[in-house]
Structures are given as C-alpha cells and as structure tokens.
Amino acid sequence: MGRGSRLETLRLRAVLFDWDGTLVDSAEASFRCYGRLFASYGIAFDRPLFAATYSPDWYRTYEAVALPREHWSEADSRWVELYGEERVELLPGAGEALARLRQAGVATALVTSGSRARVDREIAGLGATRLFECIVCGEDARRKPDPEPLRLALDRLAVDPTQAAYVGDSPEDVWMARAAGVRVVGVEGGFPNREALRAAKPDLLAESLAGAVDLLLRP
C-alpha cells in the first residue's frame, strides 16, 4: 500500500533499483558481518549501534564506531570475506515485481553502492542476471547520494531522467534521485533507517516492492 502524493503523469521508460535492502534481503547478514568485523578490532557492536550508525556509505559507519582510518582498507577486504560466507535471498516478490515492469515495456536497471565482485556474484547465484538491462556498482561512479551513478545508468539506457523512477530504501537513495532529476519511490526495507527514509520525503512511499510497482504502473 502506498502513501504520499501520486507521481505526476509521465511516460515511464525505466525503473532503476537499489540492491541491498530493496531487492535482496541483506540486513541481517550485514549486521552479523559488522559485528564480526568490528569485534576483530575490539569494538563492541550491537543492534542499537547498528541502528544509530547504518548508512549505505559504510565509511560513515566506520567513522561512527571510531574505527581508525588506517584500518579502513583492511576492513573493506575483511568485510567482503565475511559477507562471502553469508547467503542472501531476493526479497519476496522481487522477481515478480521486475517482471511486471518488463512486461509493461519498462526497462529495469540496478544502481548500487555495493562492489561489483559481490553484487555480480549474488546476482548470478540468485539467477537474477536477466532482470537488469544495466548494472552500475560502487566502482563505476561516486557513491550515493551523489547523482553520478544514477546519471551513468540513465546514459547507458538512453533514458531521460524525466522518464525514469528510482526505487530504494534509504534517504541516500532519495537524495541521489532528487539530485539527478528522477522520481523516487521509497520502500521500507529491513535496515534500521525507516524513519530517516520517511523524513527524506520520497515522491511516494510503499510498504513493499509490489506496492511500489503498483504505484508506478497506475494509470
């Protein structure tokens, strides 16, 4: 069920998606990995701290928990190693939601801050390669909320920002889309940032991917 004002009428040609928390259920895996990672540096990490420090830009999390900057590169490698031991799944209805858009003639793409190696591995393991016409990862452009990754994806799709929408679960997703001139639909995911998402005031707010697609395809 959606909340908020309807999108103004536009010829929707593409919907671009965030990955973690929006299409794939990675919140619990991320929490476990952060706990193990920070413990190796003698930093206690619990759910309240996860809620207080979570950001798609993990360097903000490193800074918030006072991980010394000289350890950040090492921590990146260690986190990828730990996360590789986790198994994540597409959120219920994610594949069906993207299929509905494609059946309606709307292109679907992925814009994520996640590393190419990890995201490609997860997409292949989930059999989701054909769900996206374009994939932009963290190494391809500046990180959210900078609009560069979204603009890069739109250029690759040859779609004007006014003919696109972005679906994500974080305030950074909203800020990126707004800076790129793209309509944005917020989906309340599993990460502890729902209040921040609401405060960012996406054009529309949905409780599920199915609800987001309903809003986007509504006549």
Description:
This protein folds into two domains: 2-25 and 89-217, 3-Layer(aba) Sandwich (Rossmann fold), CATH 3.40.50.1000; 27-83. Helices cover 43% and strands 14% of the residues. It has helices at residues 27-39, 47-53, 58-64, 72-83, 94-103, 116-125, 148-157, 171-180, 194-199, 209-217; strands spanning 2-3, 14-17, 24-25, 89-90, 107-111, 134-136, 164-168, 183-187, 204-206. A seven-stranded mixed β-sheet has the order 1-9-8-7-2-5-6, with helices on both faces. Strand 7, helix 8 and strand 8 form a beta-alpha-beta unit. Helix 5 (94-103) runs parallel beside helix 10 (209-217). The longest helix has 13 residues, at 27-39. The radius of gyration is 17 Å and the shape is globular.
